[in-house]
TrEMBL record:
Official protein name in the record: Endonuclease/exonuclease/phosphatase domain-containing protein
Phylogenetic lineage: Eukaryota, Metazoa, Chordata, Craniata, Vertebrata
Region (Disordered): 1-24, 329-406
Gene3D superfamilies per record: Endonuclease/exonuclease/phosphatase
UniProt cross-references to InterPro entries, sorted A to Z: Endo/exonu/phosph_ase_sf, Endo/exonuclease/phosphatase
SUPFAM superfamilies, alphabetized: DNase I-like (SSF56219)
Compositionally skewed regions (Polar residues) per UniProt: 372-381
Domain Endonuclease/exonuclease/phosphatase: 82-283
Bias-annotated ranges (Basic and acidic residues): 352-364
Pfam family, one: Exo_endo_phos
């Protein structure tokens, strides 16, 4: 490492860690200043004040501000929920310099017009949207100034939302990439949610979409694709309807997976890992890479491209089928079939009276213990199901409950 490129950390004494004043002057994040002496391969360089810098600064070469790390096939990205950028700007700039990030997405900037003079970053173009009317919120996206980009305006006729969309022009032979940053407040209503989902739907029609942000759905279990609350289930529907993949795998705040990275193309996003917090924020930062020349995913699963389906023709073909004849003798009450918009079945067909239920119960076969149960065929089927369940070892996947961000 070229230690001359690293800002000097004044105020360190021999054998002492960095003091708060030194952190502010040097602009290093908590992630960069975590002790690393116990990790294999940690550098053992010594600074001018006799402090082992390798114990506090991750051992990778610093990227000069005028050098683009985007010349390769991958864009290096960082996402962070800052919980106010007021005292974290220098820390963020130090991390960008050390790691050479091309895209940096920030939520909860808490910026307003009074920060206009201090939010710029050398070598980057800034897109931002501040919250209007009340404190907090706000989003931003820094883009390496060697990348050709432009902001997209999706659904601007609707009420303001904390989301922004930027198109990154691809290299020759490679398509453009749309990058989105979103912050969904915990108290956001259904109307604002639906407006956001329309934006996501419009952006997902592109060939390559990467969406990062804090959506505040702590009750979602991404392993099982389930959720407790209605709004969270509606968000899952939006993700499924737009064929998005969620690639964050670890909790980002107090055991909850609030900060997400989603994409509409398998193999587009990789190398996802958490990078500690930005300053005193209680959210973990997420680092990931966008493959500009996305590799072809080696998947053995055959999937259907529903975007190319003609659902109008499909409904027309279904309407031509004589369902009464097609379902005749199929073993179910035809009154329950209401595909063609026929009148609903009578209450008698849907809800048999108690006498009919009692009579059927008395006619039910009796097992060897004398209890009304299944027929021999039904018992055999049940035994086969139980045997198969036993072979699976009774594996259960449970997700811990957690809290959303404030």
């Amino acid at each position: 490492m070229l230690w001359d490129d690293v800002p000097r950390l004044e105020g360190w004494g021999a054998g002492e860690g960095p003091q708060p004043t030194a952190q502010r002057r040097a602009g290093c994040t908590t992630a960069c200043l975590k002790p690393r002496g116990d990790e294999p391969g940690a550098p053992d360089a010594t600074g001018t004040n006799g402090v082992t810098l390798g114990r506090y600064i991750k051992g990778i070469p610093a990227t000069p501000a005028n050098k683009s790390a985007s010349s390769g096939a991958q864009l290096k990205c960082l996402y962070a929920n800052a919980r106010s950028m007021g005292n974290k700007q220098e820390e963020l700039e130090a991390c960008v310099r050390l790691q050479g990030y091309d895209l940096i997405g920030i939520t909860e900037t808490w910026w307003d017009s009074s920060y206009d003079w201090s939010v710029g970053m050398e070598g980057c173009r800034l897109f931002r949207k501040d919250r209007q009317g009340r404190r907090g919120g706000g989003i931003a996206l820094y883009v390496n100034d060697q990348l050709e980009c432009m902001e997209l305006h999706l659904g601007m006729d609707e009420e303001p939302k904390e989301s922004l969309w930027v198109r990154i022009k691809g290299r020759a032979g490679v398509g453009d990439i749309i990058v989105g940053v979103c912050y969904r407040p915990p108290d956001q209503g259904d109307r604002a949610d639906e407006a956001l989902y329309r934006q996501i739907g419009a952006a997902s029609r592109s060939q390559a979409l990467v969406l990062m942000g804090d959506f505040n759905h702590p009750d979602i279990c991404w392993r099982d694709n389930t959720a407790e609350h209605k709004q969270s289930r509606r968000f899952l529907e939006c993700v499924d309807d737009n064929f998005l993949l969620q690639v964050t795998e670890e909790p980002t705040r107090r055991g909850a997976m609030l900060d997400l990275v989603l994409t509409n193309k398998e193999g587009l996003v990789g190398n996802v890992k958490l990078k500690g917090s930005l300053g005193c924020s209680d959210h973990e930062m997420v680092e990931f890479g966008i493959l500009r020349a996305a590799r072809r995913a080696c998947s053995k699963l055959t999937t259907l491209d529903f975007r190319r389906a003609d659902f109008g023709l499909f409904r027309d073909l279904l309407g031509r089928i004589p369902w009464d004849k097609a379902l005749e003798g199929r073993g179910g009450p035809r009154q329950l079939v209401n595909i063609q918009g026929s009148a609903p079945p009578s209450s008698g067909a849907m809800h048999p009276n108690k006498e009919e239920v009692r009579q059927k119960h008395q006619e039910a076969p009796v097992d060897e213990q004398g209890a009304p149960g299944q027929s021999q065929t039904q018992k055999g089927s049940l035994q086969r199901v139980e045997a198969r369940a036993g072979s699976l070892g009774g594996v259960q996947r449970n997700c811990p409950s957690s809290q959303g961000s404030g």
